[in-house]
Write the structure tokens for this entry.
Amino acid sequence: MATDYAPRTREHRVPAVLRAPFEARALREFGYVLLSLPISIVTFVSAILTISLGAGLLVTFIGIPVLAGGLLLARGFGAMERGRARVLLGLDVPSPKPVRSARPGAMGWMGATLKSGASWRHLLYGLLHMPWAIFAFTVSVVFWTVGLAGLTYPLYQWTFSGEDGVRLYGGMHDEVYLDSPLAITLTSAVGLLVVMVCPWITRALVSVDRLMVAGLLGPSALDSRVTELESDRGVVVDTAAADLRRIERDLHDGAQARLVALAMDLGLAKEKLLNDPEAAARMVDEAHGEVKVALQELRDLARGIHPAVLTDRGLDAALSAIASRCTVPVAVEVDLSARPAPAIEGIAYFTVSELLQNVSKHARATRASIDVWRTEERLMLQVTDDGRGGASTSGGSGLAGLAERLDAVDGILVVDSPAGGPTTITAELPWRG
């Protein structure tokens, strides 16, 4: 995915329209337009030779390596163009995936190159860019030349023969020269106006170059989607591994340790059953309490994996249950005529659960609310509280991890939490029911 980046900016007292001609960005964009013409001529000639020679020689074996070599050269030019766009335009376009052949050898490589859509898009860029580069070069150079010539006219007006200056019009009976002080001043003013407009004209021209570079020289939408899915799969795997480690830790440090201690207490009670029945009864009573605590811990752990109420009664009852355990009053409103997919339902439950934990621990709120509804094929969740605000998905916070989990299933997390509150966090999930 192509991204624009720019250095951190500071506030200026001079309006942008006035300072634009004097900024480095205007010089870089004009330099990009100037370089585009000679580069585009080379890439266009290379593309034409690749197509004409390769297609003409396809009747022989030579056409295949010619086409493959031409496509490889086009990819090299594309890499150069991405670098030029990065330096001069601040446009960061990732490289497409390299050509990989399933079969070893030259024939396998040539076949993979000819099947590569990215290689053909690079070749298409070489064909389409030259006409646009000629147009952009002509318009940009003409405007800059006219503007600078008019702006500096008072400096060189005296160099013309006599004192007539530049002749605007010459006919049979009359001639018009830029020789009076008023005409010279107006010429310079018009030149200044054109110079002020020039950076914006150039910027509009290079916006087309941005589209061409991002659309033809970067990875395709399918490749980007595959990369995104691979990243999401990694997040899902890491999340599942973390959950397994958490369950193992909770079992080892909680219920398992308590059951071990319970077994030891029952063993001691068994030994004292005959000698000291009263002490054995007390120990059995204590063990009975420990059993209740262990059962509650196991219930909590099972609820953390997947609560039974969610499976049996759906989101309305499950969210009401976790809302009742929150430290602040929570109003729950669920407007669903059907149930989403079980996996999505589980993610929605744990999302709200984690958000309510944040409300309890960090928000300093006095009340909160949960709203759940369906919009077309999306499940919408919204948790609002009247706390101190300042929540953010940056800095490796819990909300950042939650946003990654939602993104792994094509979900979105939006946080609106100004300092001082209130905080509104909206989650959007696919329905897939």
The chain has 13 helices and nine strands. The mean pLDDT is 79. The radius of gyration is 36 Å.
